[in-house]
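User: Here's a chain of 283 residues. Predict its fold as tokens.
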Amino acid sequence: MNLSNAQRAEVLIQALPYIKKYYNKIIVIKYGGNAMVNEELKRAVMGDVVLLSLIGIKVVLIHGGGPEISDMLTKVGKKSEFVSGLRVTDEETAEIVQMVLAGKINKGLVNLLENIGGKAIGLSGADGSLIEARMLDEKLGYVGEITNINPKPIHDLLEKGYIPVISTVGCDKEGHIYNINADTAAARIAGVLGAESMISMTDIRGILRDKDDPESLIPVVNVSEAPQLIREGIISGGMIPKIECCIEAIRRGVKRVFIIDGRVPHSILIEVLTDEGIGTMFV
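Assistant: Prediction complete.
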């Protein structure tokens, strides 16, 4: 798209109120889904994160990595098994989860952010006891339930101008490593940080009144309306736990939570810096 210099200046002026609103505030971005596995989209997302950081918004990036974990398990001859959307995690799987999330994916994202011009440092939930956890259910193995979030390592990095990139593995006092659902971790971390907003990137446009009609997007949902939407089947299946995490974040004091389509290039900038937004906002 070729914009004239005057049009470019106009775009920046239009964004000014939003830059002012979010300046020096914390935004937590939960990053996953197709936006993670498509290299072009990944670069666009990281570009958005760097831009927000450079205009004085404190961005905390929390990532999952389900597809890459499944790929690695297949390579070592292990079958992925899920119960209610959670990966059954024995000790060997927990090691692979840590290797893929805290190693390959986390360091890859940090490297990309640095190459684009950002300042980033990768953390896992085991660093600085950031995410403390215990076993959620013996049947699931080392799937963790969060018992405590220690925000200090995140605040320390934000104060020094870094983008913290967090992989969601947790730990306990005995040194066990737990696989933590990234949506759950993002909601808890956003609450503890007192984030202005949390953005959850998914593979859908937001909440649709009719799942077959992309034009039936519900732009704003009050937390009190969510149970009714679940009863009506408008929110169903794998979206239910995601929505529950959005509600949890609001209840923990996050002002606004957005579900946006990570497949749309620059969806984060459209949501944060324009008046029309792009997904569903929870208030």
